[in-house]
Design goal:
single chain, 413 residues, mainly beta, Immunoglobulin-like, eight-stranded mixed beta sheet, six-stranded mixed beta sheet, 6 helices, 25 strands, 14% helix, disordered N terminus, binds copper (II) ion
Amino acid sequence: MSEHEHTSHVGHGRENTPGEGAGRAGDAAGSGHGARGGMVAGNTVSPPTRPQLLAVSLASVLALAAAGIFCAFQTNLSLSARDVGGAVMPPGAIMPYDTPGGSMRDMAAIDPRRVSYTAPSDARGDQPLEPRIENGVKVFDLEASVIKWNILPDVQVTAYAYNRQVPGPRIRITEGDRVRVNVTNRLPEATTVHWHGLIVPNAMDGPAGITQEPIQPGGTYTYEFTAKQHGTYFYHSHREPDRQQALGLYGAFIIDPKDQAARPVYDLEYTVQLQEWLHRQGYTFPAMMMEGAMPNYFTINGKAYPVTDTIRMKVGQRLLLRFIGSHNNFVHPMHVHGGPFMVAATDGNPLPATARYEKDTINVGPGERYDVVWPAREPGKWLVHCHMPHHSTNNNVEVRGAGGLTMIIDVAP
Ligand SMILES: [Cu+2]
């Protein structure tokens, strides 16, 4: 006698249509501790009693409640799609259940559908911006928008850019100039501009929500001030700069001294603006020094080695390098091969001749500037590079001997 047949003899319920489930339950009961009768017995099914129904209902409700509570501690059920705004998060970002929607929008990739311009693959940033003169005031126009930008021939980031270039255009004026900058916002989010290191009226300083209302998408704000200092400065977004500056909103602001004797002696100059990028799976995220948001590409003036500029000079010439910490996270130890340089100015402020000092590596932190004069002593190819070796790779790959924060000074005899 099979077990099924065996169990079918046990129990006392009335005859019922044999169901598949009932048969299986009978099998299970039979193979377990032997049939003990009850609700299901072979081909007969007895109706559940009221306490049984109550018990099953209560267990179901408790299980459902437990699942809901469990989920609430894994994900933020208070967030709607509108709060998060369709954010695409960096792979590996840590997002516990209490991560606010604002945090996700801050760290999210640029929405590629917002791109309004694709720069040619070989386009360069930091292009001189010519002012127009209105009643003796030098007037510049900046427009922030979303672009596609090649940091390498085969790596195209999505960027927030001033005047469709990364870095933004170079503003160069003379000490004492009256300056007006019209900033138009074509980004999908509000923004402002800060003039880093400059003495300006407070309302012109740029911090969003502190000295001014942010410039809404489609809006314009006019900044105006007189340049009281001279030296190496820069401008950058001051609304969520952890996001907007990391995505490309920065540019050099160079002020020549009225008195030419105030500048160090040099034959040619080059401005080095550092930047860190997080670009994965076709999306560009603002690089941040936190889990899952660390940068994997690094650029000098918007390009990673081997497509960074090459500086060409001759033995005996002196090169002024203006390092600008336009990046957001690391302190980059910038090293020059081929002998030491003289530090001539820090954060735009010239050092008196007696205070100048020699180094061959200088730590450029976010926001810092260093003007250094490097004499070409020997002919050949001399490197300028970050001494955190990972920052001299492209997504951890060396191309033609380096990557990222690397450029070459080519010295002719
Ligand atoms: Cu570095």
